[in-house]
Amino acid sequence: MKGRKTGGRVAGTPNKVTASIKEAVTEAFEKAGGVDYLVKLATEDPRTFCGLVGKVIPLQVDAKLDGPLTVQVLKLAGSDADDPTPK
């Protein structure tokens, strides 16, 4: 019977290797200091931190706005050299 799934894992279930890797990364993250480590990384190496953020935040968001959009820009500590605004 062509095109009919007869075995394997249920659709949407992650494979065991993926689950194991996620568990290992989570454990390493906790041992490195968790959120405190990320804050330190953002301060000491903003380029690496931003690269990490770019990997975990969706590249595209489809949204419908019912009202005005407010954008808040935050400045990372120690990022004065990258500030394009005149002083």
How would you explain this protein's 3D organization?
The chain has 87 residues and is mostly helical. Helix 2 (35-44) packs across helix 3. It has a domain at 16-60 and 69-76. The mean pLDDT is 83. It is flat, with a radius of gyration of 21 Å. The protein is built from 3 helices and no strands.
Question: What is the structure about, briefly put?
Answer:
The radius of gyration is 21 Å and the shape is flat. The protein is built from 3 helices and no strands.
Whole-Å distance between the termini? 71 Å
Shape: flat
> Which regions are unreliable across 5 or more consecutive residues at pLDDT < 50?
none
- The total strand number stands at 0
Chain-averaged pLDDT: 83
- The number of helices is 3
Q: Output the structural class.
A: mainly alpha
User: How large is the radius of gyration?
Assistant: 21 Å
Q: What percentage of residues falls in helices of 4 or more residues?
A: 40-55%
H and E string: HHH
- Major sheet summary line: none
Question: What layout of secondary structure does this protein have?
Answer:
Layout: H1 16-32, H2 35-44, H3 46-56
Helix pairs in contact: 2-3
Comma- or semicolon-separated keywords:
44% helix; mainly alpha; 87 residues; 3 helices
